[in-house]
Amino acid sequence: MNITFRWYGRGNDTVTLEHVKQIPGVQGIVWALHQKPVGEVWEKEEIQSEVDYIQSFGFHTDVVESVNVHESIKLGNSERDQYIENYKQTIRNLAAVGVNTICYNFMPIFDWTRTEMFHPLEDGSTALFFEKAKVENLDPKELINTVAAASDLTLPGWEPEKMAKISELFEAYKEIDEQRLWENLEYFLKAILPVAEECDVKMAIHPDDPPYSIFGLPRIITGDQSYEKLIGISDSPSNAFTFCSGSMGASPENDMVKIAEKYAYRSPFAHIRNVKIYDNGDFVETSHYTQDGSIDVKGIVNVLHKQNYAGYVRPDHGRHIWGEKCRPGYGLYDRALGIMYLLGLWDAYKTAEEGKTK
């Protein structure tokens, strides 16, 4: 288990790499060029500048999250081939500096959806919250305003240039159902996977968040059957998954321990976090501690340990605790606590295993 920490870059994060350096066990930084417009080529010089800075703190830069996919590719319109060519070149440029894992998603318009950015919890902390009934009756523009007001920092998937075209995008997606979206994903994968293979890069698709349709938009990476369908598209070793316990696990239909048992071998990158799911479909993000939510975090780590998982793991979202002012879900303190919990579980399972062999 290679522990990493997501960081949004110089001048774009309340957390510094000096802070991250003080968290025991962190080996790498999960990074991206967050200021780049979606669809543009990431140039070698700007990639090298970021990599050099991160590596100067002793971290590896093996994982990028995310090289976002342009809406033209998801829609399958006449502009997609040029954006796919740009994507291929970005893969080549990232591989040239040692990146071996790229996390991406194929969610229409919104990369993730929450109705509250700082929902109060009983312990006095706040966290990201999803109110299902509210989304079912909400104008998407209201949601955009809620997210935009939450932070002056970049919020991936909610880029201002994309949000400005929200009405046009919803109109375009009226012609896209799940089958068409799968077809467009297949077209994209068959174009980029040969390049990823040549570069020895794993393309690790992230599950939809939440893993079901919102605002009438199709969602396709939602559970076990989605992974089987992806494997059916291509058995390339570069066609991989980002295992995300909190995103896919937001549906009670998904047993994340069983999914880890079945697919961890195809997941070079894992996001481990907890959510508490309510009977009405609402969910709130909690601490990583298993007992605080609905996800069996202990069971997931146990599976990874049994499989000698050597992939990259990050603690993913955290609560906002101890008065920290930060990007929603991405403060320092609770993610650091999450790392220590994950490492503690791993060490306990390792010690127990060693005891059996003596």
Q: Outline the low-pLDDT stretches.
A: none
Kindly provide the radius of gyration, computed on alpha-carbon positions and rounded to a whole number of angstroms.
19 Å
Order of strands in the sheet with most strands: 2-1-12-9-8-7-4-3
- How many separate helices? 14
Q: Spell the H/E element sequence.
A: EHEHEHHEEEHHHHHEHEHHEEEHEH
Work out the strand percent: 5-15%
| Mean pLDDT across residues | 93
* Sheet having the most strands: 8 strands, parallel
The backbone outline, from C-alpha atoms, is: globular
State the share of residues found in helices, binned by percent.
25-40%
Structural class: alpha/beta
Distance between the termini: 23 Å
Number of strands: 12
What does this structure look like?
The chain is of the alpha/beta class. It contains 14 helices and 12 strands. The strands form 2 sheets. The chain has an 8-stranded parallel sheet with strand order 2-1-12-9-8-7-4-3. Strand 1 (2-6), helix 1 and strand 2 form a beta-alpha-beta unit. Helix 4 runs parallel beside helix 9, helix 12 (256-263) packs parallel to helix 13 and helix 13 (297-306) packs across helix 14. The longest helix has 25 residues, at 333-357. It starts with a strand and ends with a helix.
